């Protein structure tokens, strides 16, 4: 995974998620919501070359129901990454989301407006929306939707990626984790090591679980694999 170009790696991750089915769709959310606009576009281009079809087309043919609309929308996004936010639009979107969550909860994924907001708005816009939602509802948006839902995965990846990745790392380092879950550790390290957010992830992990990530790796992982992970982690400091 480390030797692959990031765009090829992400394209292959999405393909693998489609082959695994529902249980792995959160990986498609991860790729589409935690990458930059250019990197997501690059992954879509790599998908063309590797699999002779578009990522959107493949998702649409494998995924059905309300999940398809959300996932196709997320991978198709090319988000604005500038510093401008229209506060009135952020507040309006927050009201739409508040009404959708209040009226349908898990069914919010069926709401076209919710999908539009999550798949088109800039991450900075969504941060402002998050603030307005919490003021309107008096509760945390991330607590209003089931943790297991794709909507929650998308919100967490878009709003607090360091928290999302910390939870993935913690699950993969759990002594009772199955073989598939343990592989998440490699995925997070190799996909985030070249990005500045790896340092933020390590800090968030320490804050959430009360132990430095490097120390956890040192204690729970052995051999050359441990050394490799620690080397990648040190690159971010």
From TrEMBL:
InterPro entries xref list: Annexin_repeat, Annexin_sf
Superkingdom of origin organism: Eukaryota
Organism per entry: Brassica napus (Rape)
Keywords, sorted A to Z: Annexin, Repeat
Gene3D superfamilies registered for this protein in UniProt: Annexin (1.10.220.10)
Protein name: Annexin
Pfam families in the cross-refs: Annexin (PF00191)
Secretion signal, residue range per the UniProt entry: none
SUPFAM superfamilies named in the record: Annexin (SSF47874)
PANTHER family xref list: ANNEXIN, ANNEXIN D4
């Amino acid at each position: 995974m480390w030797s692959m170009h990031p765009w090829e790696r992400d394209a292959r991750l999405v393909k693998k998620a489609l082959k695994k089915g529902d249980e792995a769709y959160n990986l498609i959310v991860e790729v589409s919501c935690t990458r930059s606009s250019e990197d997501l576009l690059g992954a879509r281009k790599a998908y063309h070359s590797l699999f002779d079809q578009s990522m959107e087309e493949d998702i649409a043919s494998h995924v059905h129901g309300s999940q398809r609309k959300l996932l196709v929308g997320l991978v198709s996004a090319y988000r604005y990454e500038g510093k401008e936010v229209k506060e009135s639009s952020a507040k309006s979107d927050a009201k739409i989301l508040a009404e959708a969550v209040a009226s349908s909860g898990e069914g919010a994924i069926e709401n076209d407006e919710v999908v539009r907001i999550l798949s088109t708005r800039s991450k900075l816009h969504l941060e402002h929306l998050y603030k307005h939602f919490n003021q309107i509802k008096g509760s945390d948006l991330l607590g209003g939707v089931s943790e297991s839902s794709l909507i929650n995965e998308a919100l967490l990846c878009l709003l607090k990626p360091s928290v999302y990745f910390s939870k993935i790392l913690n699950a993969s380092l759990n002594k009772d984790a199955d073989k598939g879950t343990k592989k998440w550790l490699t995925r997070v390290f190799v996909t985030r090591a070249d990005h500045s957010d790896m340092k933020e992830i390590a800090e968030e992990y320490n804050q959430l679980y009360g132990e430095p990530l490097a120390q956890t790796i040192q204690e729970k992982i052995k051999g050359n694999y441990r050394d490799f992970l620690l080397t990648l982690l040190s690159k971010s400091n």
